[in-house]
TrEMBL record, chains A, B:
CDD domains: FDH_like_ADH3
Name of the featured protein: IMP dehydrogenase
GO molecular function list: oxidoreductase activity; zinc ion binding
Gene3D superfamilies reported in the protein's UniProt record: Medium-chain alcohol dehydrogenases, catalytic domain, NAD(P)-binding Rossmann-like Domain
Sequence similarity: Belongs to the zinc-containing alcohol dehydrogenase family.
Record carries keyword Oxidoreductase: yes
Stored Pfam families: ADH_N (PF08240), ADH_zinc_N (PF00107)
Alphabetically ordered keywords of this record: Metal-binding, Oxidoreductase, Zinc
């Protein structure tokens, strides 16, 4: 099969890779219908994380073409959505809603779903079948559910977004924009999107943002405080993962408020004393997307939400190198790869 | 009046200080019935924080002897309990339960309650009257409610302690021990107290601890993991405030679990990436003791709880220097000062 491989940082190629096979009776093989490039794929692309002939990709939707002997919840022919960690969905951690930290979790990034086929471990726990074969225009939204929407949604839930709440979203990438959409669906009264890019501001407004703040860091915090009667927001979604964005999130939150952070923290050190006196709630981590998939698929299927709009560029798999470049150079927010 | 003054780090004296007077119509003056020395008083005592002829003390119970013209909720003669921040109890932050971060908060430590009398700002919001004149043996418990019990209780609530939960308590000082008591009252199924001191272990058991772990740091975490099926605890109370204790708390918590931290963080830096992948909830800060005071006073008045047992040394105010020394040298867990 054809699949994306990062030979070295910055060097993305589409190569022939071995077809996946069932390795455990709990595995399934899917034919990938669409995949995409994640903001986190840029860490190895830019050399911050290692890359050495690494298969890439952890977002996927597709059709089950083979199942292991122990698989019961999905069958050949099902159209399915999974997320970036395979999980059994039965252990204590999964049942508490933290499938991304399942005791048997397997990172899909190690398998590489930017490919024609993919092996899905723990298929019964990992995959959720759609009610039928999706219309073509639903594919981008279902693919968004696989990662960015599920992650933005988790951030909103972690930030305890709800009716009557003022929500700040730090980060205007696909996850931040999905966080705006989630905040709107969860009933937030006011949604302040922090963004300096006009096209992303427009999509943020379309997804439900009521206010746009272009300032960052200290100035951004000052504007948020001004907009919230000097107190800070009830809920803040952090979707970047840098020291500046984390501190901007904490400082934009009122005492007793909630920060939901989903940007993978790189070189972040939280100062204990400032965090202590902030009196905020802090929760985040790798999003347990699986917890939200059934609900998100339903909202997409009913056309209540259209999160696929975060994809502003679509390319065939063979042009993956262009997709990475567009993400790296920020000429695209999020690139969908067709197969 | 007589009051405790820290002339310089390590130099505690009882001196004549001016009698307090009503400065604002929202003030009350109380005659202090009992005060005590706090673990946090040891930071200036040891020179980590500054001290220069500083009036000391922020824990207090006593009788109202004078009120300003705007005070309505307490009257002269009431026996009252307050906490270490004066708060209006009416602003948005107070109404959300974060009175320690009230928009008009005033730290009682700046006033100094280790004294015969004390001015209480925002008396209506700050003070809670007991149902009557307390029996002498209830005074220590009411005084504990003023700080250590309220703080331990907040930590347990922040850690989302409840029925069926396994709780770890890091720190065996008066706050940690109060956290054990709170966890028991809040219905925890299993309470693991981390303590190396026999007398504190005994009180932890009396307060409801089901297990004692004497190991610390990496070894302590390993024992907690072993006791919790490899997963970590649902809830962890952190009541120390050092880098080691914070990391011990985070690492003792299962993914999706809750850390409630109330040890005032000194030189703590939380590593972002580890915190991210821990997937824990983190909440804490200066405890909004006022939120819990009415309930705690009721539990004490009904003799449901006896948190006053954390006081293992009682001295007259004039011997405050000895009290500080005993706390510093750990010959006492918590010292009550009589007046």
């Amino acid at each position: 099969m054809r699949g994306v491989v990062m030979v070295a940082p910055g060097d993305v190629r589409v190569e022939d890779r071995p077809d996946p096979v069932i390795q455990e009776p709990t595995d399934a093989i899917i034919e990938v219908a669409a995949a995409c490039v994640c903001g986190s794929d840029l860490w190895p692309y830019r050399g911050v994380d290692d890359a050495d002939h690494t298969p890439m990709g952890h977002e996927y939707v597709g059709t089950v073409v083979e199942i292991g002997g122990a698989v019961e919840n999905v069958k050949v022919g099902d159209f399915v959505v999974g997320s970036f960690f395979a999980s059994d969905n039965t252990c204590d951690i999964c049942r508490a809603g933290y499938q991304s930290r399942c005791v048997h979790a397997e990172p899909m990034g190690a398998i590489g779903t930017q490919a024609q086929f993919a092996r899905i471990p723990l298929a019964d726990g990992t995959l959720v079948a759609t009610p039928g074969r999706p219309a073509a225009d639903l594919i981008p939204s279902l693919l968004a559910a696989s990662d960015v929407l599920g992650t933005g949604w988790f951030a909103a839930v972690a930030a305890e977004v709800g009716p009557g709440k003022t929500v700040v979203v730090v980060g205007d990438g696909a996850v931040g924009l999905s966080g705006v959409l989630a905040a709107k669906e969860l009933g937030a009264e006011r949604i302040i999107a922090m963004s300096r890019h006009e096209d992303r501001q427009a999509l943020a407004r379309e997804f439900g943002a009521t206010d746009i703040v272009a300032e960052r860091g200290h100035d951004g915090v000052a504007v948020v405080r001004e907009l919230t009667g000097g107190l800070g927001a009830h809920c803040v979604i952090e979707a970047v993962g840098t020291q500046e964005s984390m501190m901007q999130a904490v400082r934009s939150t009122r005492p007793g408020g909630h920060v939901g952070y989903v940007g993978v923290s790189h070189d972040v050190e939280l100062p204990g004393l400032e965090l202590f006196f902030s009196a905020v709630h802090l929760h985040g981590g790798p999003a347990p997307v699986r917890r939200f998939l059934p609900h998100l698929i339903e909202l997409i299927w009913n056309r209540t939400i259209d999160p696929g709009k975060v994809f502003d560029l679509t390319l065939p798999l063979e042009r993956a190198a262009e997709a990475y470049r567009a993400m790296d150079e920020r000429t695209a927010t999020k690139v969908l790869l067709t197969l």
